[in-house]
Fold this sequence. Notes:
There is one protein chain. The protein has helices at residues 7-61, 65-84, 102-106, 112-116, 125-128, 138-144, 157-165, 188-212, 225-231, 233-263, 277-293, 309-316, 321-337, 342-345, 353-378, and strands at 295-297, 303-305. It contains 15 helices and two strands. A two-stranded antiparallel sheet has the order 1-2. The longest helix has 55 residues, at 7-61. The chain has one domain: CATH 1.20.1420.20. The chain is an all-alpha fold. The N and C termini lie far apart (50 Å).
Amino acid sequence: xxxxxxxxxxxxxxxxxxxxxxxxxxxxxxxxxxxxxxxxxxxxxxxxxxxxxxxxxxxxxxxxxxxxxxxxxxxxxxxxxxxxxxxxxxxxxxxxxxxxxxxxxxxxxxxxxxxxxxxxxxxxxxxxxxxxxxxxxxxxxxxxxxxxxxxxxxxxxxxxxxxxxxxxxxxxxxxxxxxxxxxxxxxxxxxxxxxxxxxxxxxxxxxxxxxxxxxxxxxxxxxxxxxxxxxxxxxxxxxxxxxxxxxxxxxxxxxxxxxxxxxxxxxxxxxxxxxxxxxxxxxxxxxxxxxxxxxxxxxxxxxxxxxxxxxxxxxxxxxxxxxxxxxxxxxxxxxxxxxxxxxxxxxxxxxxxxxxxxxxxxxxxxxxxxxxxxxxxxxxxxxxxxxxxxxxx
Length: 393
């Protein structure tokens, strides 16, 4: 009867085994739900970008102020799903691997003169330099993007933004480009070709990203990125956590907010021509919240909900979940609370309400990154100080 002595040990081993199996199953559910959300999100990016593309074509066919306003509103709407997709960056996935389209899609800040310098400038920009670039095309803009300087942005969201709004010289509103820039102004036709080429590129690049995250088609199988992502469970969890850390503390808190807060310079806000940086901040904070909760709400209101990183945190480090949830939800609230327009919120003394609100958001995002790094350690994930070039899967 001495075998009864070993019952507690056997029970402990069984419980431990079951716990490990539950964690593996939860990780798999997290990865599969994440891939589902990513594909839906990029699909929405394409759909909204195509609406922008259509409004730009309509505007260029017969430019007037009303059609320009419609195109601007379509640009703002198309940015909402795209900004939420930024939670899938920072681990050399399809968007920002060495051959990814991120520099062609969302490079900033840009030098407006590189695209379209004012008349009489020594360097007329791409639009005005007919001799150097007689034919404006998508392939030309791709080739010229980021040549001889990181501000030499030739394509992407912010190039389109500049071409729709022009420079923002107002303290109370965005840029005020006139429709006549596309009718009677010097190089009007070339400016239109530039705008159309940029918009077409955005649609194509987003379509390519969507293909990389498409679910397996049994009749036409190919090993796209989603297939690799869904197979490499542990590596993919590592990717998910890494992305949230770098979006929170490096990109949003650092590059997009801290620099603007320090310099008080309108040129350092993310969407300076349209004055929609407030939306950028809210949607990026929402991007982190989506992944944390395993939830994504599509533009039509459809809600995708399943396992999120929060569920994994509850399983392996339950004491950390309440604080992280409070921080991540709080980031959305703090981003929403920053006064609009953002370029005015960063001005004045440090005790001004706008600057205090921006600093509170920066601090909360940095705290979020620090707590996520603790979670990463609990999961056995080593997160570098800077985004990795790649994580093999």
